[in-house]
UniProtKB/TrEMBL annotation:
InterPro entries, A to Z: QSOX_Trx1, Thioredox_PDIA6_C, Thioredoxin-like_sf, Thioredoxin_CS, Thioredoxin_domain
Listed Pfam families: QSOX_Trx1, Thioredox_PDIA6_C, Thioredoxin
Catalytic activities: Catalyzes the rearrangement of -S-S- bonds in proteins
Lineage: Eukaryota, Fungi, Dikarya, Ascomycota, Pezizomycotina
Keyword Amino-acid biosynthesis: no
Signal peptide (UniProt feature, chain positions): 1-22
Name of the protein in question: protein disulfide-isomerase
PROSITE patterns per UniProt: THIOREDOXIN_1, THIOREDOXIN_2
Protein origin, superkingdom: Eukaryota
GO MF terms held by the record: protein disulfide isomerase activity; protein-disulfide reductase activity
Length: 454
């Protein structure tokens, strides 16, 4: 009995010394694509799609914590972009990880196609280590090969390569969705894709469009156009367009069956097996600095009535977005709930435009103790009692304003807030006329008297 117990203990200790998860963090069933340098060059660097690549070590606690969010992001990005991982603990991958400048784990890099095949743009992802943060960042990098057509230029676009197939999405939105961008990538070089807004009435009438969104296929060679009536999902939409041309051969590789491993090379790149003699534990690994993602800087605050009036309420002031903050019983208490979400979302939107170097109207937070806050709330017909956050956009010069979703179930996440701001940028949606007394004109009477006297 003692001998049997000793044997069991010895077996357990030997098992404990074996490497855990020899294939790395991600299995063949994972939605995350496992690649080495060869797989990266073939499936990532030479792809028409954008990708995000995680460089990790299986023993790294931060990498293990990231795994659920990264796999969720991979599922959400399926068909839109590629989500891959490289096991830098594998001896065969270490030179490649060094070439990519990896100094800490996990390091995430977004890879975007460029005009030079095989020479993509590579940049570090510094956003939140969440599925939503990763998805938002990658979607923002999906290439846009969709033509923005109007009544004025539609005929000219249709005349280009007249015999070739084309597809048109009729939509009420001014932005180009990730789905239609991915369809354009899928058929890049074989089907040209355009997007037309519903306000382009000549084009809408020409193709007999009554519902939005609607996808129309023009097979080419004089054939009649065909309107798609299926689900607005990529799979069936690709199948619909495939009647005119074949999609590009750029699929994710299929998992390899276990029985084929010995006789066939794996179609799905994966890290090599760790060397059995390397009984390395997390404690014996050298300390590697972990990159801390930088958060978006907070938006500016207009703390005084004078600052608010000068920035947004003067007769010639342009568009401003104002976040009226709730009243707090205790000063200097950190905001929570929807108010915190709203400020973080506005900060991310502002930061994104700053990184792109695109012009965006200013975004401000207005504390409840700003003496002009209560009066402006009342002037716009909002509740004078600052119980929750309120976001409004206004333009004093053009005399309009509009409010972000005021319902109790309002979502202040960055996706919804950014869509609202994009609609303002593109002139979409209804606007309210600014009430009298909101715009500060106290200096104008004196100036008029002076001019009259000249």
């Amino acid at each position: 009995m003692l001998q049997s117990t000793s044997a069991l203990l010895l077996a357990a200790s030997l098992l404990a010394a074996l490497p855990v998860n020899a294939d790395g963090l991600y299995t063949n069933k994972s939605p995350v694509l496992q690649v080495d340098q060869k797989g990266y060059n073939k499936l990532i660097a030479n792809s028409n799609y954008s990708s995000i690549v995680e460089f990790y070590a299986p023993w790294c606690g931060h990498c293990q914590n990231l795994k659920p969010a990264y796999e969720k992001a991979a599922k959400n990005l399926d068909g839109l972009a590629k989500v891959a991982a490289v096991n830098c603990d594998d001896e065969a991958n270490k030179p490649f990880c060094g070439q990519m400048g990896i100094q800490g784990f996990p390091t995430l890099k977004i890879v975007t196609p460029s005009k030079k095949p095989g020479k993509p743009r590579v940049e570090d992802y510094q956003g939140p280590r969440t599925a939503k943060g990763i998805v938002d960042a990658v979607v923002d990098k999906i290439p846009n090969h969709v033509k923005r057509a109007t009544d004025k230029n539609l005929d000219e676009w249709l005349a280009e390569d007249e015999g070739s197939p084309k597809a048109i999405l009729f939509t009420e939105k001014g932005t180009t969705s990730a789905l239609i961008r991915s369809l354009a990538i899928e058929f890049l070089g074989s089907i040209k894709v355009a997007q037309i807004r519903n306000k382009e009435t000549d084009a809408v009438e020409k193709f007999g469009i009554t519902d939005f969104p609607s996808l129309v296929l023009l097979p080419g060679n004089g054939q009649d156009s065909i309107i798609y009536h299926g689900e607005l999902k990529k799979g069936p939409m690709v199948e619909f367009l495939s009647q005119a041309a074949s999609p590009n051969p750029d699929p994710a590789p299929a998992p390899t069956k276990a029985k084929d491993k010995a006789s066939k090379p794996s179609e799905r790149p994966k890290p090599s097996e760790p060397i059995a003699s390397e009984e390395t534990t997390e404690e014996s690994k050298p300390s590697i600095p972990i990159k801390v993602p930088t958060s978006a800087p907070a938006i500016d605050t207009l703390a005084t009535a004078e600052a608010l009036e000068a920035a947004c309420l003067a007769p010639k002031s342009g568009t401003c977005v104002l976040a009226f903050l709730p009243q707090s019983d205790e000063p200097d208490v950190e905001l929570t709930g929807r108010a915190k979400d709203a400020l973080e979302s506005l900060a991310e939107v502002a930061h994104k435009h700053a990184q792109r170097k695109t012009k965006l109207f200013p975004l401000y937070s207005i504390p409840a103790d700003n003496t002009a806050s209560k009066a402006l709330r009342a002037g716009l017909g909002l509740s004078e009692v600052a119980e929750t956050v309120e976001i409004v956009a206004l333009n004093a010069r053009r005399r309009w304003w509009r409010q972000y979703d005021p319902s109790e179930s309002a979502d202040y996440g960055v996706v919804r807030v950014e869509a609202w701001i994009d609609a303002i940028r593109l002139g979409e949606g209804s606007r309210n006329k600014l009430p009298e007394g909101v715009i500060v004109t106290k200096d104008e009477p004196e100036k008029r008297v002076d001019h009259d006297e000249l």
